[in-house]
């Protein structure tokens, strides 16, 4: 199985979104993290299922929440680049490690 590498900025994206959801409703932040984990597992099982969105990055939508996971794939690893709200431009990840 391909190794998942989560960029520190992507981990911060997840933490900030989960924290915001937790302020909206107790337990919602944890539900967000579970959905992120579920989506990452789906990516790991079949990364080429997701189309390229920006440059070489692919995008997977998170169920139940308006967020997307942006990632790059090579033969060794899947690199999670960003976890962004869908209203943000795909080009936001261009400022990161692509």
Task: Describe, in plain words, how this protein is organized in 3D.
With 98 residues, the chain is α+β, with helices and mostly antiparallel strands. The chain has a single domain, classed as 2-Layer Sandwich (YaeB-like fold), CATH 3.30.2310. The chain is built from 2 helices and 5 strands. It has helices at residues 8-24, 28-45, and strands spanning 3-6, 52-54, 57-61, 67-73, 77-85. The chain has a 5-stranded mixed beta sheet. A hairpin with a 5-residue loop joins β3 (57-61) and β4 (67-73). α1 (8-24) runs antiparallel to α2. The radius of gyration is 13 Å and the shape is globular. The two termini are 23 Å apart.
- CATH topology term: YaeB-like fold
State the separation between the terminal residues, measured CA to CA: 23 Å
Proportion in helices = 25-40%
Strand content: 25-35%
Element order: H for helix, E for strand? EHHEEEE
Number of individual domains: 1
Number of strands: 5
The top level CATH class name: Alpha Beta
CATH architecture: 2-Layer Sandwich
Report the average pLDDT across residues: 90
Low-confidence stretches: none
Radius of gyration: 13 Å
CATH superfamily: RelE-like
Structural class: alpha+beta
Shape: globular
The strands making up the biggest β-sheet line up spatially as: 1-5-4-3-2
Largest sheet: 5 strands, mixed
Number of helices: 2
